[in-house]
Amino acid sequence: LPSRAGLSHVVFPDGHPFNWVLQLLGSNVHLPREEITLADVLQASGYRTGMVGKWHLGDDPSARPNDFGFDYFFGSLYSNNMTPFDLYRNRKVAFEDPADQTLLKTLYTQETVDFVRRQDDAPFFLYFAHNFPHIPLYIPEEDRARSKGGLYGDVVEGLDDSVAAIVAALKAEGTYDNTLILISSDNGPWFQGSRGNDRGRKGDTFEGGMHVPMIAHWPKGLEGGRVIDGISMGTDLLPTILDWLQLPAPQDRLLDGRSLRHMLEPGGESPHDYLYYTSIGQFKAVRDQRYKYHLRRPVVTHLGGLPFGIGPSKGPWMFDMQSDFNESYDISMNEPATAARLRQALEEKQQQFRDNPRGWIN
What we know:
Structural class: alpha+beta
């Protein structure tokens, strides 16, 4: 979880006033060097590791992708609404600010394909984190009006093109059947894009801000054509991959994730009793397979054309996610024992973090 690394907010380029505020508040403005990434573990295990796209974990010269297990990096250090928007190849600027973002699709796709082609018979790991569909949105001229979803839809179809090109490269190299492809997102949509029937959007601990798709594709390792509804989080990816590869996890720290191996293989269940939702470094909600409990919280509402919203505090609330995935009807008074159990689980997690925020094992 971001709180483990002391990252409570989005970080900005070096020297930005907001970073000074974060540091005054005791937050980090880059990923601490003592953190271990999936790329670190795989690199140490003989994998060739590459990253294409958005890093956004700080621009400190000692805490960039090449310092965290990536043999090769091409991309930006920040989201594409920040300046300077340079594109780096490893530690050097390849395209100076302002890099032409209409070229991002072409550049990123070619970089990923080239990385796949360079690997020969060596095992490899590629992390592809596209800047889009974060705003501002850009497309090459030939992609304009290709979808029925406006500019946003055009950009998303361009992302599909990138995935198709990677798949084609894997097939051409003969590695497709034994390559695990994982596709997901870091959060729900912001102003545009659909969050389905979920409540809320990016930045929210309602499901609309947190609930994202995950696709796992591995012809030799997973039975396809299935939809799995067990609860899981992005923190589960590292322990899942280590489990499949039979690699040991770091022994000096707690992992917030759990291996999804048995859930993704036919017949398994979620390894989680609870999922914990954080925002701005604080625990805000908890859920099990069926119920979700929110602490009392501000809920932003907009009134009659005003150019701002207000956030009166409401709750605590509990929702039945089986029948009310829109989180519209509080049933905590109907099932007080369930609400008490979830609140206790959340309070225990909060206390564990207060006692050992970095998760070190003595």
